[in-house]
Amino acid sequence: MSKFNHTEAVEELQHYRLTNERCSEKVTLLGARLIKDNYVSKLGDQVWPFYEQVAIAALDVQDFTLSNFCINKLKERFTEKSLRFRRLLGMRYEAEGQLDKAQEVYDTILQEDDTNMLASKRQIALLKVKNKDAEMIEALSNYLDTYYDDHEAWLELCDVYVSKHMYDQACYCCEEMILLQPSNHISFLKYAEILYTVNQLPLALKHYCKVLELCTDNVRALYGLQLCARKLLSSNEVNHASDLHALAVERLLEIYSKDKTTESIRKIVQEYLTV
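The structure assignment produced for this chain is given below.
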């Protein structure tokens, strides 16, 4: 068995912090070993982000002994006056299933600092777990008023609107996502599917085409293109609907012919596409 290298372990943990990688199991393993060997005494001021990182990872893997050790060390240094430390307490309540207590912690943090990004995100996550859609929509909207460029938050808000059949609002979220990340094919695909749902077929067709421009042979977009084009074959709203339909069918059949699917599945797909 190779000897445990404490220096490499510290560098690996620092790398995870810099790249915002969670890697909870690995972080917990390395952190516990460094604490056991009392190597933390050599970390200087870096011991505090170390304790925070290990505490969060330990909560992820439900190692409450390790997380409580780290949290207590942080409490001794920063006390509960620290908003960052209180957020960590809220996360511990979440991990323990005490959601109401966690909510109280995040609420008090936001009362003192309504622009606290991390507390806002935890609050939104809690509302999602508790299925409080109306409050979640309000919290996300308030959050995006401050952090407009958070693409994931727009996506989360879009999903909530779709679940509530509020398609106009969901379309607005997609448009904001496209403005923020115009080369992200997922945003165009989501927009296209919502447009198809509300029967805006010509616009949906255009966005399915955009998805395929950004991500060639995206199967989901090809099926969407095929469905849209088929419905528009008898309409004068879109030129070349028949050509687009034929292209989607051709590409899908080609994809399934290359894939290691059984002959019976390929036959079912072919029958469906040629109806």
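Interim note for the steering committee: The two ends are 63 Å apart (CA to CA). The mean pLDDT is 91.
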